[in-house]
């Protein structure tokens, strides 16, 4: 479980993350606090995958 604070509007979102074969998969599950202005999307993506780069 993780808590993410949006840099866009200050919303706080609860989510879950799982490491699977070197990929971090995550998904937002619940908005804990709405951001300002209301109605603005707190996160650009509500779910996704992070991959380690070769750098």
The gyration radius over C-alpha positions equals 13 Å
Overall structural domain count? 1
Q: Level of helix content?
A: under 10%
Which spans of ≥5 residues are poorly predicted at pLDDT below 50?
none
Largest sheet: 4 strands, antiparallel
- The percent range for strand residues is over 45%
**Distinct helical segment count:** 0
Order of helices and strands: EEEE
What do you see in this structure?
- By secondary structure, this protein is mainly beta.
- The protein has one domain (2-51).
- The protein has strands at residues 2-5, 12-20, 23-33, 47-51.
- A 4-stranded antiparallel sheet has the order 1-2-3-4, with no helix packed on it.
- Strand 2 (12-20) and strand 3 form a beta hairpin.
- It is elongated, with a radius of gyration of 13 Å.
- It starts with a strand and ends with a strand.
Short description:
With 55 residues, the protein is mainly β. The protein contains no helices and four strands. 0% of the residues lie in helices and 53% in strands.
Question: How are the SSEs ordered, and which strands pair?
Answer:
Layout: E1 2-5, E2 12-20, E3 23-33, E4 47-51
Antiparallel strand pairs: 1-2, 2-3, 3-4
């Amino acid at each position: 479980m993780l808590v993410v604070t949006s840099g866009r509007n200050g919303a706080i979102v609860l989510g879950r993350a799982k490491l699977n074969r070197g990929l971090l998969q995550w998904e937002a599950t619940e908005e804990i606090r709405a951001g300002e202005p209301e109605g603005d999307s707190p996160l650009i993506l509500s779910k996704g995958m992070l991959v380690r780069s070769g750098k």
